[in-house]
């Protein structure tokens, strides 16, 4: 059991309120971050949703706040309006014993005018989405000159949704002398790059899941013919039902053949190899990374540009020629504390390749038993997301916040949690959307406006 909140040097009013809310023992993330936060240091915290992170940074913000100074002292950035609303609501609960505190939410998809009016009356804490915060800063309706605390909540999701440039714009208008807190469920390279730019000697706190070690389970199947390998791949996919799978092939021709076969079998599958033009390659990488295609069949060279933090399954359609390449392939799964599986198909004559690998098992003497054949009667599973392509990008001043606001605002708004990665290129933009609301999202973009003008939009299929 972790320590009680009463062990912390929090303001008496905050401790009294926590006791009235039956908040006694801290969660692990609170116990590990709050003493550092209260000490005024920058913190990077990696923890899953539901770990108690809102109270961790919320108590830090409220403890530091000077209510008598009626000006914006803290900015909390969230990826979606729904999360911003939840954070603001939790802050208000934690702050019940502090009188005259004003917490204001500024999110896209909501009318701009009333927000200007609220800002004119002042606030202590701003909770908002990057796009709308940047818009207020650009129009001069928001000043952050006195903000001495900056919080990034679900920073990985904000980067996923394409808010990197917007966050940089916001950071340019926040005082350099400040405390910065960054909370993230995962820790991709972009988080490290962001923290290096915005934080001063941050303390890293990681709360591991129950399976703290990165585990990759390797399985080897002896298969001789191309058709045998295809059937084995289908069995694995239907048996495991992975969210995303990367299948490595040794040639471009084989990549196309495997992808075509799986597509005919009803799977959401894409091919990626060196003969593809750049536009098609970009689109393929975007669709696989945003969850609107569940399987990518690729050559080693083509897969180098792939950046996915969590990959459920890797299938080696043929054993790699080099042991280091094999290690690199399977190392794409089992990241961030998640469990991963790597399946490798080999022929009798390829035994010498396996003998050169540093394996804990002997796949030659005891190949794994394939999944049962009766699962082949099951229908293929669908990818969770769909991708909409918008014929407008950076050159047309389209930003991720514009797209998110168009989807989550107005009539029949879409829940921000149903919006996935947003990628804005020079002349086009891609947005991932949950399958069940994809048709609604398409209509909202078709019938609405971005940057005050209409843009063509289509749902990418195939």
TrEMBL record:
A motif (Q motif) lies at residues 3-31. It comes from the Bacteria. Belongs to the DEAD box helicase family. GO terms for molecular function: ATP binding; hydrolase activity; nucleic acid binding; RNA helicase activity. This is ATP-dependent RNA helicase DbpA. Pfam families: DbpA (PF03880), DEAD (PF00270), Helicase_C (PF00271). Residues 3-31 form the DEAD-box RNA helicase Q domain. Residues 34-205 form the Helicase ATP-binding domain. SMART domains: DEXDc, HELICc. NCBIfam families: PRK11776.1 (NF008744). InterPro entries: DbpA/CsdA_RNA-bd_dom, DEAD/DEAH_box_helicase_dom, DEAD/DEAH_RhlB, DEAD_box_RNA_helicase, Helicase_ATP-bd, Helicase_C-like, Nucleotide-bd_a/b_plait_sf, P-loop_NTPase. Keywords: ATP-binding, Helicase, Hydrolase, Nucleotide-binding. The lineage of its organism: Bacteria, Pseudomonadati, Pseudomonadota, Gammaproteobacteria, Cellvibrionales. Its EC number is 3.6.4.13. Residues 215-377 form the Helicase C-terminal domain. GO terms for cellular component: cytosol. It comes from Microbulbifer okhotskensis.
């Amino acid at each position: 059991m972790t320590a009680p909140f009463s062990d912390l040097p929090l303001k008496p009013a905050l401790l009294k309120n926590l006791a009235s809310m039956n908040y006694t023992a801290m969660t692990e993330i609170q116990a590990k971050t709050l003493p550092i936060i209260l000490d005024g240091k920058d913190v990077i915290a990696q923890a899953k949703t539901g770990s108690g992170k809102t109270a961790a940074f919320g108590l830090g913000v409220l403890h530091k706040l000077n209510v008598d100074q009626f000006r914006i002292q803290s900015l909390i950035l969230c990826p979606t309006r729904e999360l911003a609303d939840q954070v603001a609501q939790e802050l208000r609960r934690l702050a019940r014993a502090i009188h005259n505190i004003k917490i204001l939410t500024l999110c896209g998809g909501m009318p701009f005018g009333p927000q200007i009016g609220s800002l004119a009356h002042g606030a202590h804490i701003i909770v908002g989405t990057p796009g709308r915060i940047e818009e207020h800063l650009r129009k001069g309706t928001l000043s952050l000159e006195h903000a001495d605390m900056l919080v990034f909540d679900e920073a990985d999701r904000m980067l996923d949704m394409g808010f990197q440039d917007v966050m940089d714009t916001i950071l340019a208008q926040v005082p350099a002398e400040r405390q910065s807190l960054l909370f993230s469920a995962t820790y991709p390279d972009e988080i490290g790059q962001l923290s290096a730019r915005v934080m001063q000697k941050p303390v890293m706190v990681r709360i591991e899941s129950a399976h703290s070690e990165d585990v990759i389970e390797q399985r080897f199947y002896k298969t001789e013919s191309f058709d045998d390998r295809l059937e084995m791949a289908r069995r694995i996919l239907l048996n495991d039902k992975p969210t995303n799978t990367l299948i490595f092939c040794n040639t471009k021709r084989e990549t196309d053949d495997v992808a075509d076969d799986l597509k005919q079998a009803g799977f959401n599958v894409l091919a990626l190899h060196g003969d593809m033009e750049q536009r098609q390659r970009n689109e393929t990488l975007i669709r696989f990374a945003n969850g609107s295609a569940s399987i990518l069949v690729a050559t080693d060279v083509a897969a180098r540009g792939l950046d996915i933090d969590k990959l459920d399954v890797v299938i080696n359609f043929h054993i790699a020629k080099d042991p280091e390449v094999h290690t690199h392939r399977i190392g794409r799964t089992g990241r961030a504390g998640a469990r991963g599986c790597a399946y490798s198909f080999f022929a009798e004559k390829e035994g010498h390749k396996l003998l050169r690998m540093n394996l804990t098992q002997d796949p030659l003497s005891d190949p794994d038993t394939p999944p049962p054949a009766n699962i082949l009667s099951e229908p293929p599973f669908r990818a969770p997301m769909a991708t909409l392509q918008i014929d407008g990008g950076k050159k047309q001043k389209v930003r991720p916040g514009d797209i998110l606001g168009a989807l989550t605002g107005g009539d029949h708004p879409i829940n921000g949690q149903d919006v996935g990665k947003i990628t804005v290129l020079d002349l086009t933009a891609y947005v991932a959307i949950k399958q069940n609301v994809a048709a609604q999202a398409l209509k909202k973009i078709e019938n609405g406006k971005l940057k005050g003008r209409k843009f063509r939009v289509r749902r990418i299929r195939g």
